[in-house]
Amino acid sequence: MLKKLATTTLLGGLLCCATAGPVLAEGFNFQKENLMIRLRAIDVMPDESSTLSIADRAKAGNQAVPELDFTYFWTDHWATELILATSEHHMSTRGGIDLGDVWILPPTLTAQYHFMPDQKFRPYLGAGLNYTFFYNEKAGTSIASIDYDNGLGYALQAGFDYGIDEHWAINFDVKKVWLNTDVTTTGPAVTGDVDLDPWIFGTGVSYRF
């Protein structure tokens, strides 16, 4: 069902882009009233699975961080959102190997459909892509070094804004993000394929110009 939802929303986003194509071809005319900025507090909860070269599985800790988002409405219903957040996670294995800490930066771009843009309660669905950067790796006490490969993934999104006045709204949002990385450690040498695939729950405020 998730794959069907992602396909439907992505196709809609492509249709939206196709509709906007002639406008863009004539030159993009930025309208500030079409721009929305959100600031959320999010809880990043990895739903990890892995295949390691040892008989063990990877484990990632949860993290709460701020998230900044920029949404541009191409029509009353269709919008694109750029999601920006970074979080630090403690990594280990189920068997107790301390893999240390790593920062994750997954810029995510989604195409969104907003169902009732003129109402106070404004639900939406979205789907898109992310490219995840792993940085500031710090090896744990059980290993000498660790390296994570960056990678491309997918994202699904659902949420709503509840209008307070003409500009401000309260927002609730949930995302499922697919993050995959190849991990290599030394001292001892371990390799593996790790899917972090976090659920991201957020709440905050929206401001539309």
Primary descriptors:
4-stranded antiparallel beta sheet; 12% helix; 15 strands; 209 residues; Porin; elongated; disordered N terminus; mainly beta
3D structure, described in words:
This protein is mostly beta strands and 209 residues long. It has one domain: Porin. The chain has one helix and 15 strands. It has one helix at 2-26, and strands spanning 35-45, 49-52, 58-60, 63-73, 78-84, 87-93, 98-105, 108-114, 121-138, 145-148, 151-163, 168-177, 180-186, 190-195, 199-208. Strand 13 (180-186) and strand 14 (190-195) form a beta hairpin. 31% of the residues are buried. Residues 1-25 have low confidence and may be disordered.
Compile the SSE list and pairings:
Layout: H1 2-26, E1 35-45, E2 49-52, E3 58-60, E4 63-73, E5 78-84, E6 87-93, E7 98-105, E8 108-114, E9 121-138, E10 145-148, E11 151-163, E12 168-177, E13 180-186, E14 190-195, E15 199-208
Antiparallel strand pairs: 1-4, 1-15, 2-14, 3-6, 4-5, 5-8, 6-7, 7-9, 8-9, 9-11, 10-13, 11-12, 12-15, 13-14
